[in-house]
Specification:
It contains ten helices and 25 strands. The protein is α/β, with parallel strands linked by helices. The strands form eight sheets. It has a five-stranded parallel sheet, covered by helices on one side. A five-stranded antiparallel sheet has the order 21-22-25-24-23. The protein has a three-stranded antiparallel sheet with strand order 3-4-5. A hairpin with a 4-residue loop joins strand 3 and strand 4.
């Protein structure tokens, strides 16, 4: 079969739905505040107007760089001039007996979220394995819906990869006050049940009952297609500051891409919606012959209960934490310093200050701990000084 040549853009995805917004899946979509028809990033009319042909429910099985064609799972072959690999990642599976039982779920797609939403019935027992963003966001929704919720985390604290112990302690306290049973440093041996999961067994032999289990233990970047095509892969698809891979006609962006960052001091693969969107914009510019180097400040957010956690920068290697405000009030900020410079910051329900915090982190501002902690000193003033 001769490859099909298309004019414009062909967007290929193994999910049948149009590309959707992922953050609401663990938040508004689970609560019912956001419906499925509100999730698409762009509707079908926008795709048609911009000559974007969406091929949903089909995946790319191989890239032939010599012939400049891609093979699809439905038997088609498409000729290309340029490719953008935005393959993202998949939920890391639980490597334990019983993980294949019914009602053991993870969250990456709208279909996953819809399956989880069916389990959120008042009075049911929900066990969440993993105390990261996804696990805690789902816990917040579920306990408000009247479920009996337990979060199991193998590390000694929640959000251990992304926040300081003080922030972890704050979120642990908040969830416990809301009725979530958070258990830290646990060791799980298996999931129990016949056809559907009925419980979680620990290595000490004790069991906690469960009507459903949600696994949120991280993401595996989808790099297999790039590896098979002979592209450079190292903790993600290796790209340059423009999003270009080791093949000048293939670009990559998002959770699957490993990019250089002078701001962050080396190569980094980020699992972040803002990063994915900005990387994609820069890759698109390069594909159109208008390259612009990408080295933006990473930032993240998480909604749990009435709290909005906003984070910017990466706190790896910090040697001092400065808290501005009181964690007892459920509204405060935290600054991560390294050798006296601000390298990252967290804001809990401080929407007006977060923009100034980003400026301080982007500038690697050298500010005394005393001034950062002093709420009488406006962050706007500190950010203006850093800009100068």
């Amino acid at each position: 079969m001769l490859p099909v040549t298309r004019v414009g853009v062909a967007a290929v995805g193994d999910e049948a739905e149009l590309p959707d917004k992922r953050p609401p899946l663990s938040k508004g979509f689970l609560t019912g505040a956001i419906t499925a028809d509100q999730l698409p990033i762009r509707n079908a009319a926008v795709h048609e107007k911009n000559r974007i042909e969406f091929l949903g429910g089909v995946s790319v099985t191989a890239i032939d760089r010599a012939k400049k064609t891609v093979a699809l799972s439905d038997g088609q072959s498409i000729a290309y001039s340029k490719i953008a690999l935005t393959t993202g990642g998949r939920a890391r599976p639980l490597p334990l007996p019983g993980a294949q039982l019914a009602n053991v779920l993870s969250l990456r797609s709208m279909a996953d979220a819809a399956a989880i939403r069916e389990q959120l019935v008042e009075g049911r027992r929900l066990v969440i394995i993993g105390g990261g963003y996804i696990g805690l966001e789902i816990a917040a929704v579920a306990v408000k819906k009247g479920l009996i919720v337990t979060v199991l985390e193998s590390a000694p604290r929640v959000l251990a990869r992304v926040t300081a112990p003080e922030i972890s302690e704050f979120y642990t306290r908040v969830h416990r006050e809301e009725g979530v049973d958070i258990r830290l440093g646990v060791q799980i041996a298996a999931l129990t049940g016949e056809d559907a999961v009925s419980g979680v067994r620990f290595v000490d032999g004790s069991i906690i009952n469960a009507d459903a289990v949600i696994v949120g233990i991280g993401l595996i970047p989808n790099t297999e297609l790039a590896t098979a095509a002979g592209l450079s892969v190292d903790n993600g698809i290796v790209v340059d500051e423009y999003g270009q891979t080791s093949d000048p006609d293939i670009y990559s962006a998002g959770d699957c891409a490993n990019r250089p960052s002078e701001m962050l001091g080396g190569r980094v693969r980020l699992e972040s919606v803002p990063n994915a969107m900005e990387q994609a914009r820069h890759a698109a510019r390069a594909l159109m012959g208008q390259p612009k180097a990408y080295d933006e400040l990473p930032w993240f957010w998480s909604d749990q209960y009435e709290l909005k956690l906003q984070m910017c920068g990466l706190s790896n290697g910090y040697d001092q934490l400065v808290v501005r405000g009181s964690t007892a009030n459920r509204t405060f900020s935290a600054f991560y310093l390294k050798q006296g410079r601000v390298i990252a910051a967290d804001a809990v329900s401080q929407l007006r200050d977060f923009g100034f915090m980003k400026k301080l982190v982007a500038a690697r501002a050298q500010v005394s701990a005393e001034r950062l902690a002093d709420e009488a000193v406006p962050l706007k003033e500190l950010a203006a000084e850093a800009a100068v």
